[in-house]
Design goal:
alpha+beta, about 25% strand, elongated, 3-stranded antiparallel sheet
Length: about 180
Protein backbone atom coordinates (compact mmCIF):
# COMPACT_ATOMS: atom_id res chain seq x y z
CA UNK A 1 0.00 0.00 0.00
CA UNK A 2 1.25 3.46 -0.88
CA UNK A 3 1.66 5.80 2.07
CA UNK A 4 1.24 9.57 1.94
CA UNK A 5 2.34 11.04 5.24
CA UNK A 6 2.74 14.55 6.57
CA UNK A 7 5.97 15.40 8.36
CA UNK A 8 4.25 14.98 11.75
CA UNK A 9 2.87 11.55 10.80
CA UNK A 10 6.24 10.48 9.43
CA UNK A 11 7.98 11.68 12.59
CA UNK A 12 5.60 9.65 14.78
CA UNK A 13 6.22 6.52 12.69
CA UNK A 14 9.97 7.16 12.61
CA UNK A 15 10.22 7.49 16.37
CA UNK A 16 8.16 4.37 16.95
CA UNK A 17 10.21 2.31 14.47
CA UNK A 18 13.48 3.61 15.94
CA UNK A 19 12.34 2.67 19.49
CA UNK A 20 12.04 6.26 20.67
CA UNK A 21 8.30 6.00 21.32
CA UNK A 22 6.13 5.28 23.22
CA UNK A 23 7.56 7.12 26.18
CA UNK A 24 7.50 5.58 29.62
CA UNK A 25 4.61 7.10 31.50
CA UNK A 26 5.01 5.23 34.80
CA UNK A 27 7.64 7.57 36.23
CA UNK A 28 8.45 11.23 36.43
CA UNK A 29 11.74 12.83 35.62
CA UNK A 30 12.92 16.38 35.25
CA UNK A 31 15.85 17.64 33.18
CA UNK A 32 16.97 21.10 32.24
CA UNK A 33 19.20 20.16 29.31
CA UNK A 34 19.11 17.72 26.43
CA UNK A 35 19.02 17.44 22.68
CA UNK A 36 16.10 18.36 20.48
CA UNK A 37 15.14 14.79 19.63
CA UNK A 38 12.47 15.77 17.12
CA UNK A 39 14.86 17.97 15.13
CA UNK A 40 17.44 15.19 15.08
CA UNK A 41 14.84 12.65 13.93
CA UNK A 42 13.50 14.99 11.21
CA UNK A 43 17.03 15.45 9.87
CA UNK A 44 17.72 11.71 9.95
CA UNK A 45 14.42 10.69 8.34
CA UNK A 46 14.78 13.31 5.59
CA UNK A 47 18.23 11.97 4.76
CA UNK A 48 16.86 8.40 4.63
CA UNK A 49 13.92 9.49 2.47
CA UNK A 50 16.06 11.33 -0.10
CA UNK A 51 18.35 8.29 -0.34
CA UNK A 52 15.27 6.10 -0.81
CA UNK A 53 13.99 8.32 -3.64
CA UNK A 54 17.39 8.38 -5.32
CA UNK A 55 18.38 4.72 -5.15
CA UNK A 56 15.52 2.40 -4.20
CA UNK A 57 13.63 0.17 -6.58
CA UNK A 58 10.58 1.83 -8.14
CA UNK A 59 8.41 -0.75 -6.35
CA UNK A 60 9.09 1.09 -3.09
CA UNK A 61 8.26 4.54 -4.47
CA UNK A 62 5.32 6.54 -5.78
CA UNK A 63 6.22 7.51 -9.37
CA UNK A 64 4.65 10.56 -10.99
CA UNK A 65 3.22 10.21 -14.49
CA UNK A 66 3.98 13.41 -16.38
CA UNK A 67 2.94 12.18 -19.82
CA UNK A 68 0.07 14.64 -20.21
CA UNK A 69 1.83 17.66 -18.69
CA UNK A 70 5.24 17.35 -20.38
CA UNK A 71 6.02 19.85 -23.11
CA UNK A 72 8.60 18.79 -25.66
CA UNK A 73 10.44 21.43 -27.63
CA UNK A 74 13.01 21.02 -30.38
CA UNK A 75 16.65 21.71 -29.53
CA UNK A 76 19.74 21.99 -31.69
CA UNK A 77 20.30 19.20 -34.15
CA UNK A 78 17.99 16.25 -33.80
CA UNK A 79 17.23 16.45 -30.11
CA UNK A 80 14.28 17.39 -27.97
CA UNK A 81 14.14 19.11 -24.60
CA UNK A 82 11.67 18.68 -21.76
CA UNK A 83 11.77 20.96 -18.73
CA UNK A 84 10.86 19.01 -15.61
CA UNK A 85 9.51 20.45 -12.35
CA UNK A 86 11.79 21.37 -9.49
CA UNK A 87 12.40 18.42 -7.20
CA UNK A 88 12.62 15.81 -9.96
CA UNK A 89 15.22 13.28 -8.81
CA UNK A 90 15.00 10.38 -11.27
CA UNK A 91 13.64 9.52 -14.66
CA UNK A 92 11.96 6.12 -14.66
CA UNK A 93 10.60 5.94 -18.20
CA UNK A 94 10.54 8.18 -21.26
CA UNK A 95 9.23 7.35 -24.72
CA UNK A 96 8.28 9.47 -27.71
CA UNK A 97 5.95 8.56 -30.55
CA UNK A 98 8.02 7.13 -33.38
CA UNK A 99 10.57 5.49 -31.09
CA UNK A 100 10.74 1.70 -31.13
CA UNK A 101 11.29 1.45 -27.35
CA UNK A 102 11.80 3.49 -24.19
CA UNK A 103 14.89 5.66 -24.07
CA UNK A 104 17.92 4.57 -22.08
CA UNK A 105 18.38 7.21 -19.38
CA UNK A 106 21.97 8.37 -18.93
CA UNK A 107 22.90 10.52 -15.93
CA UNK A 108 26.59 11.16 -16.66
CA UNK A 109 27.02 13.74 -19.45
CA UNK A 110 30.73 12.88 -19.68
CA UNK A 111 30.09 9.20 -20.40
CA UNK A 112 30.95 7.79 -23.81
CA UNK A 113 27.30 6.94 -24.50
CA UNK A 114 26.18 10.50 -23.78
CA UNK A 115 28.94 12.03 -25.91
CA UNK A 116 28.07 9.75 -28.85
CA UNK A 117 24.55 11.20 -28.99
CA UNK A 118 25.83 14.53 -30.29
CA UNK A 119 27.17 12.85 -33.46
CA UNK A 120 24.50 12.00 -36.03
CA UNK A 121 26.39 8.86 -37.11
CA UNK A 122 26.87 7.37 -33.65
CA UNK A 123 23.63 8.38 -31.92
CA UNK A 124 21.10 5.74 -30.94
CA UNK A 125 18.38 6.67 -33.42
CA UNK A 126 14.77 5.61 -33.04
CA UNK A 127 15.85 2.00 -32.38
CA UNK A 128 17.97 2.84 -29.33
CA UNK A 129 17.00 6.32 -28.15
CA UNK A 130 18.89 7.96 -25.31
CA UNK A 131 17.74 10.51 -22.75
CA UNK A 132 20.34 12.57 -20.88
CA UNK A 133 19.34 13.63 -17.37
CA UNK A 134 21.78 15.85 -15.51
CA UNK A 135 19.51 16.57 -12.55
CA UNK A 136 19.27 20.23 -13.54
CA UNK A 137 15.62 20.19 -14.58
CA UNK A 138 16.30 19.65 -18.27
CA UNK A 139 15.83 16.27 -19.95
CA UNK A 140 17.56 15.97 -23.34
CA UNK A 141 16.08 13.44 -25.74
CA UNK A 142 18.27 12.34 -28.63
CA UNK A 143 17.24 11.15 -32.07
CA UNK A 144 13.83 12.63 -32.61
CA UNK A 145 11.93 10.47 -35.12
CA UNK A 146 11.21 13.37 -37.48
CA UNK A 147 13.32 16.30 -38.63
CA UNK A 148 10.26 18.50 -39.19
CA UNK A 149 7.64 18.13 -36.49
CA UNK A 150 7.78 17.70 -32.76
CA UNK A 151 6.72 14.20 -31.65
CA UNK A 152 4.22 13.45 -28.90
CA UNK A 153 5.41 12.28 -25.49
CA UNK A 154 3.96 8.77 -25.17
CA UNK A 155 5.30 8.08 -21.68
CA UNK A 156 7.16 10.06 -19.04
CA UNK A 157 7.41 8.72 -15.50
CA UNK A 158 9.60 10.41 -12.89
CA UNK A 159 10.38 10.36 -9.19
CA UNK A 160 9.74 13.75 -7.61
CA UNK A 161 10.62 14.87 -4.10
CA UNK A 162 7.30 16.19 -2.74
CA UNK A 163 9.12 18.56 -0.37
CA UNK A 164 10.12 18.56 3.27
CA UNK A 165 6.56 18.40 4.56
CA UNK A 166 5.39 15.28 2.66
CA UNK A 167 6.58 11.70 2.41
CA UNK A 168 5.23 9.32 -0.23
CA UNK A 169 6.40 5.71 -0.55
CA UNK A 170 5.24 2.10 -0.40
CA UNK A 171 4.88 0.79 3.13
CA UNK A 172 7.30 -2.05 2.30
CA UNK A 173 10.07 0.57 2.27
CA UNK A 174 9.99 0.53 6.08
CA UNK A 175 11.98 -2.72 5.76
CA UNK A 176 14.82 -0.69 4.23
CA UNK A 177 15.42 1.26 7.42
CA UNK A 178 19.00 0.79 8.64
CA UNK A 179 19.49 -1.01 11.92
Amino acid sequence: MKLRLTQAEMLAQWKMRRYLEPLRADCQMSRSDGIDLDAYCVMEMRKWYLELLSTASVDYLVPTDMTLTATLRRGEGNRGLITLPQGTLRIIRVKLSGWQRDAMVVTDPASALARRQYNRFSCGGVERPVALWGGDGLLELFSLPSLNGVPVVEALTVIVDPGEERYEFDERAWNLLPE
